[in-house]
Amino acid sequence: MAYRKTPAEISRLEAARDHLVVRATEVVAEVGWAQASVTAVADAAGIAAGSVYQHFPSKAALAVEVFRRAAGREVEVLGEVLHGPGDPVGRLARGTEVFARRALENRGLAYALLAAPAEPAVGAERLDFRRRYRALFAAVVREGIAAGALPPQNAEITAAALTGAIGEVLVDPLAAPDENATEALLADLTGTALRCAGAPPAT
Amino acid sequence: MAYRKTPAEISRLEAARDHLVVRATEVVAEVGWAQASVTAVADAAGIAAGSVYQHFPSKAALAVEVFRRAAGREVEVLGEVLHGPGDPVGRLARGTEVFARRALENRGLAYALLAAPAEPAVGAERLDFRRRYRALFAAVVREGIAAGALPPQNAEITAAALTGAIGEVLVDPLAAPDENATEALLADLTGTALRCAGAPPAT
DNA sequence: GGAAAGTCTGAATGATGGTTCACTTCTTTC
DNA sequence: GAAAGAAGTGAACCATCATTCAGACTTTCC
What we know:
The structure is a homodimer. Helix content of chain A is about 75%, strand content about 0%. Chain A has a domain at about 60-195: Tetracycline Repressor, domain 2. Chain A is built from 9 helices and no strands. Chain A is mainly alpha-helical. Chain A is elongated and about 70 Å long. Chain A has helices spanning about 5-35, 40-45, 50-55, 60-80, 90-105, 105-115, 120-145, 155-175, 180-195. In chain A, helix 5 packs antiparallel against helix 9 (about 180-195). Chain B binds a DNA duplex through helix 1 and helix 3.
């Protein structure tokens, strides 16, 4: 044996992989999936196109990793708010607001995650993550029903509706942002989300 | 001059174009946009690939026409229900139901129109049609507010939420239909839609 | 230092699929 | 029926990328 990966070398490779994913995410956020060619991504990461294949078996695998990391962060944040302290209705409102605010603060990425045309592998991943959003919302809705704060309803359907509603409401603002209207938009959106779940109007 | 298009010839050409669009729509409904290659579509229409270009300058133009026709029908039907007779809340419920029912009856096409990955030109068209759905819903919501049947709210936001909610709720059933659960699904969906707009729960 | 085992490079390769075009077939008009 | 003008054909063309690979360069370890 004349070569074994030293710890330093291993972490160097991991860092390189990481850097590639980070830069690829930036490229996707800027130009969308369709324009994020292997060459463009490799250039952004400062490596040759062929080197991408040292870290990922295919472009699709890299794209999936980019999606998973970015979407995973959002699921995590949303989950923390929805499972956090407070009454279910308040958490639902806060979760909606936090989700929307984060999307508006990182529009390119949010659009890529939510709506931008993507290759099939990413599309499948998107479906999976939407299911996770739904599961998070459904849990809170069920809590709300159990606590008597929300009327009886099919929590799964409501959760799907919330996911779709929030996404659709954000599409236009993500494309053509109006900084001044952000707070009003968030207020209207959370209000609509609460109505959607059947929360009684705020006094 | 030795040749001028006779009326019969003109209508034959129009019919051929029409036939191409119809068959292309079927192909898209069956296999999705990505798999609907020019060759596949031409084969389905019984013509050569090159002949497609007698009717459309590009594949994208054909795809847009397919989308417009199919989506246009849905907008028309929805518009008739939403602008039809009855109180605004009832029309909203009925519109939601009709839209969902039609989608479930023609799942492949509905999926292609609502969610399936598509080339940019079709994506742009999709955004446009979503805007039309929103406008239709927004008008009814405004009517409901004016009539005192719905609470004050930003009708545009609610309309976007309705569009997104209905679409998202349908995605799973479109992919994995459960014939037995259709009526329950429709009831839950219309219920959620009404809550979304703030209609008081049915007694 | 040097051999072994990697890593990195970037031009060549290959697959895909839209588009073109020389040619054939059909319609019109006289 | 024959010339002129279209429409229809489908194999060839071409552009676009993802992917590969032979060679250059690095790191490890004796």
